[in-house]
Structure formats: C-alpha cells, structure tokens
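To assess whether the prediction recovers the assembly geometry, we first specified each molecular entity separately, as shown.
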Amino acid sequence: MDAVLAFLTVFTQPELLLLVGLGTFAGVYVGAIPGLSVTMAVSILISFTFSWDVYPAISLMIGIYMGGVYGGSRTAILLNIPGAPSAIATALDGYPLAKRGEAGTAIGVTTVMSFIGGFIGIGVLAVAAPFVSDFALKFQPRDYMLLAVLGILLVGSLSSGSLIKGIFAGALGIAIGAVGRDPLTFTERFTFDLPLMQGGISFIAVMIGMFGVSEALMQLHHVNKDAVRQKISRIVPSLSTVKKHLPLSLQTSTIGVVIGALPGTGGDIAALMAYDHAKRVTKNPERPFGDGAMEGLVAPETANNSAVGGAFIPMMTLGIPGDAVTAIMIGALFIHGLNPGPMLMVDQPDMFWFIVGALVMANVFMLIFGLTGIKLFTKIVEMPRAVLIPLIMLLSIVGAYAVNNSLSDVYWMLGFGFFGYFMRHYGYPLGPVILGVILSRLLDDNWRRAIISEREDLGRFFGGIFSSPLSTVLLIAVILIFVSQTPLWTRAKAHILKPRNQGVQG
Amino acid sequence: MKIETEHHDGTSDATPGGYEGQRRPGELIFGAVMFLGSLFLVFSAWGIENTFGPNGLSSPRAIPLATTIVMAIAAGVILFKDARLPRVTGETVMKDILPVNVIILAVMLVAYGVALKPIGFLPTSAVFLIIAIKLLARRGWGWTLLVSLGSLILIWIVFRIVFTVLIPAGIVPEAEVIQMFRSLFQGAP
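The predicted structure of the complete assembly is given in tokenized form:
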C-alpha cells in the first residue's frame, strides 16, 4: 500500500507534476538542439537545484532525462544532426524519410515508439528492481568492486571506440575520485601538498567541464552549419503502422532495457545495437536500410527510451550507475543526503516508487509534447549555435561556481573542459571518466573491506571469489571483456560468424 | 558490430571521436603527455603513506597505485599503437583540432573565471556574451546587443530569482535592486 501511495506522489502533488512536465518539455528541446545534451543539462542542473528538496529536484531531472533521450530524434530526422548521442542511429533512416517529405510520419512513429519503449523500460524497472535489490543484499564487498570495474569496462567495449582508451579513461576517473584525504585513514592522496586539493575535486566540476564546456568547444567546429527547413505534415501515426512494428519494437525494447541495465552503458549504445539488430532480423523492409526504412527508426527509438528505465535498475539497487546521466543523478542523490544502493530500497522504498511514478508521468508528457507543438519546435531549434555556445559556457561557469560558491571549482571545471575537448578529438570516451569518479569511493572502500576480511591474502581473496557463483560470474565477465578485444577473439568470431553473415548482409 | 556514421566528432561514447587506423594531428603529443602524466601519478601514488600501519593491500595506497599503473600501461599501449599509425591526410592542428575560435573562446573563458568574483556576474557575463556572440555570429551590433543582453537578463531572472542561486554581485548592487523591486510590487505596508 505504501508503495502505491509513493508511486502516486507525483500525480497528487501539482507542484511535482508541473516540474516533471516542465522538465520533459525542456528535455525535448535540450535533446533536440544539437550542442545541448541531457548529460550536460542534468549536470548543470544539479548545481542549481541542490538547495531544493529532493523530490522536486529529481522530478525535474527525470523529466529532462526522458524528454531529452526522445528529443534527439527530432533534429536527427529533420536536419540529419542527432540532437543527442542516443539519436545517432535515428538519423540513418530518419533523414532520408524527411527528404522524401515524410518528416511528419517519421516524427509521429518515433514519438509513439519512444513512448512504447519508455513504458517497457519503466515496467521492467518496477518489476525487476525489488528482486535485484533483495539479491543485492547478499552481495559481498568484492562483488561490488567487480561490478564497478565491469561497469567502467563495458562502456569502452560496447562503444565503437577502442577499449584501451576506455580503460585509460576509467582509471583516470578513479584516480580523480581518489584525490584529497582518504576517508578511512585521513591520508592525503594526490594532493601534492596543496591545500586546494585536500578536499578533493568536486565531481560536479568534472561533469560540467567534460559534458558542458568541452561539448561547447567541440560545437565551435560546426558553428556555421545552417539549419535546413523541412515541411512537416500529419504527425499522429495510424494504428496499423504502430501494430505492424510492434513485434520489432518489443525485441528492441528488450535490447534497450538490458543494455541500459548493464552498468555504464546507456541509450546511445542501446540504440546502435538495436539498429544493428533490426537490420539483421528485418527480412523485407519496405525500403532498404539507410534509405528511409521505418524499422530503422523504430529500433533505435524504442531502445534508447527503454534504456532509461533499465539504467535506473543498477542505480537504485546497487548504487552503480546504468549510464552517464544516472551517474550524475547518483551525484544528485548524494548531495541530497541519500545513498543509492540496496539499503535505499530497504530504508526508503518510497524514493524508488516515487521515481517510478515520475518516470511514468515523464513518459506520458513526452508523448503529449511529442505529438503537439511542432510549429514552435521548428522555431526554437533554429536558434543559431553562435548564440547557444556562449550561453552554454556561461551556464557551465555559473553552475560550477554555484555548488560551493568557490572559484577553484570553476577552474577545475574549465581545466576538465579543455582536457575533455582533446579527449573527444582523439577518441577517448568520456563516460568512463564520470563513472570512475562516481565509483571511485565505492571501489576503494569495497576493495579494502574485501581484502581486510581475507586478512590481506590475495590467495584467500581469489579463493573467496571462486567459492561464490556470483563473484565467479562477475570475474569471468571482466576477463571476457579483455579477451574480446584481443586479435585472437576477433579472428575466432570472424571464423564462426562468417558463413551466416554473408547470407544476410549481402 | 560496426555502424559507420558521419558523426565522428566525439559527441557520444557510442561513437567517440578520432579515426580508426589513422592518427589525427597532435594525437601523438597528447598520448605522450598522457603517458608521462600517468607515470608521474604512479610516482605520486607510490608516495602515499599509511599513517596507521603498513602499506599493504588494504592501505590507502593500494587503489590509487593500481589505477595509476593501469593508466600508465594503457597510455603506453595507446602511444605505441598510435606511433605506428599513418597520419590523417589533410588535417592540421590549426584547422581541425585547435582553430582560432576555440583558442579565443578558451582564453575568454579563463578571463571570465578570473573576473567573475571581483567584478561580478552581470558585467562580466555581459562583456563575455557580447564579444562571443559578435565573434561567432558576425552580425550587426544591434542584433548582438539585443540577443546577448536579452538572454543575460533572462538567465539572471531564472537563476537569481527562481533558483535563488548565489552569484557574485561584484560591483553591481544586486541585492538593493531586487529589494527595490520587491518593495515596489508589495506597495505600501
């Protein structure tokens, strides 16, 4: 009964409902406007909402998250510029559709499919999370440690970049998180005897720098690209279109939830994998993929929205973020004095059910805003980058300053912004850095707990791992990720997959 | 799985920037700096002393040392791999990595950070926005002033009054102005 009441919190309090709606509305635009991303918006928002109560702050962020993941599709379809990373695959078939004058249909299908995907993700979250958290109470410190490592590694291995760069980025994040005084022994780490470093580096400064300033600097390369106007016709798709793609949408939603729930990997990776899946299973698309296939829209859009619900599963049950945005939300919960993990579900189940309720509401708002207001939308999206970029920079600086009212945070933020800019240029993923910073403490604490309970004996530590099925599976997963990147594996995979692929892709 | 999109600009972790099988200008230098920086951090991590006991596996040194060693090895491998790759043809540092615009904006950002506290949010931001928007949009002064000051006022209202964020007031008597407006709207007591 309590759970139902908590679930309904957002529906009964007009203020929260308004904030979710406002967040979703803003999210659609944040997602749609190239150069503004959800990670950027949420990391800047943390600094502005930290004085609020936790419910309103979370309501706003959830709205932005849900709306933003969807919003990216709009500009991907209309301009061939994915407004958000999760819409990269959407552009592949969405833009060809728009060029044929079917932008309205494309947007309509995308909206409805995002809605379906979103609900499947939330449903899985509501059903699975309580079980996972019960199970998580049995987790040993070493399991948490292995999960953290797994999360950081997964981002690198599932993206199309190189794993070794992902590993570097993740380790760097952990090192950044270790700066300052060690909470257990008060020993100084990486402080170089500077008083400035003793309190550690504010993770919000790192986030705003990496996702705000570095993105804005990156966008300077595209400042003169003009927006292309498209004519938009009827948006609301026919029931038969939705029905026809329902089986595929269920499959790709599943992919989305699973990828979302894996620690570290979020909507952007889920969308690309779902697109790939649709390409393999669709035998006779009406039009070839890349040329305006409806399936090419359905797959990534269901997957990226269902990944939202998925991403909350490890975040709420284990305290391990499912993707970059949930990593930032964990930071927000920390600031509000909450500690995401299995105990949160036990101590404050209300918080969980409130989040589920807010997600449901955000999903409904997304459908409403998605199918209406297209005229206003085309106007706002034409906002020139020459104005947008300086504004993002301004907000980043004010945001970094506002958290602690300290200028040193601003300098850290700028430093990481410039650093992130080069990392982006040279193909280092930024997600693992944020994951590393957020998970640094968890990794360190749990390693020390685990090794102390084994009397500092590595042999006993590994003995412990192999005596527990869960730890063994996690360790094997970590090892598999490494093996999967070696030339040996690639050759073996090519050997096994060769005969099948030739038939389908040809 | 390999999906080739044209968006190799590092906007996403699913498709980070850079090129596979080719080296961008400056990539080798960046890699070398990362490698040397990692080595320095390994050295620094080694210097972490446990005040309460031996520097064993559970000491505050353990995880920092392990991660920095991982960083150093990874950076070393990246550097070694990059060194053997051919350079991307047709790209230069000045054109594709650090164009003049980026350098100017970066310098302006630092200047903004320095000036924020002594001079205050409103004047610093106004100057920053006007110069940046003029530089990037290359439109007339009227448009530039209207857009930059208009959005600044909007941001100020949203953050100072709605979110009640503390922003350095500097030389502008913000509190007095807000108070003046409050008393104006509340009318006589």
